[in-house]
Amino acid sequence: MKKNNEIDRALIRRIRSGDSDAWNDLIARYEGRLLAFVDSRLSNRSASEDIVQEAFIGFLNSLPNYDGSRPLESYLFSICAYKLTDHLRREGRRPAIPLSTGADSSSGQWQLKGNARPASSIARSVERKRLEEDALAEAIGDMMAKWQKNGDWLKLKCMELLIVKGTPNKSAASILGITEQQVANYKFDFLSRLRTLIKRKGLSQEVFPELYEE
């Protein structure tokens, strides 16, 4: 891990110094992993390539603000996850992800508990929606990168079925050859971690009221 971080830091230094070959080296190092990540969710190679290209452009635009405190891989996956989310939203496929950790539903619907309202029912400003999307994309990207690093492919496949495709728990369990309880556990773990990561960002309570409605 330390060696990878050193390689990444060297790449960033070269790119910032104007080394034209460094950008090609960065793409060669990460393009395959990002494509695999997007391909597994879209099954559309052309769209996947466009999203990954947009992610690299997004990284280049944000480079002046990148301080290296986050691992480069995690940072790239965060940007890519945001671009993927944006693509799905444009196609009308972007899932709403309320931040309740309730995992007992097998309907495939991600409903909030108690008095919390579904995200779709709340009138939100453009700025607030942007903050939400950025926070969600970054948090999900961090989790995806961590699970990939740890080889948690079953968990990744499960969350793809539940979140991207909206598959009910029972169907997801059948497809993956696991129990409904395992699916429910994966969902609970995902939402719990998502809540934790977003809370750490210190955003205003008005941005994610779901986080504070227990």
UniProtKB/TrEMBL annotation:
What are the GO BP annotations of this UniProt entry?
DNA-templated transcription initiation
Annotated signal sequence is none
Q: Name one Pfam family in it.
A: Sigma70_r2
Report keywords, A-Z. Answer: Sigma factor, Transcription, Transcription regulation
All copies of domain RNA polymerase sigma-70 region, residue ranges:
26-94
Glycoprotein recorded as keyword: no
Q: Does the keyword Transcription regulation apply?
A: yes
Q: Which GO molecular function annotations are given, in alphabetical order?
A: sigma factor activity
Superkingdom of the source? Bacteria
Q: What is this protein called?
A: ECF RNA polymerase sigma-E factor
Specify the species: Mariniblastus fucicola
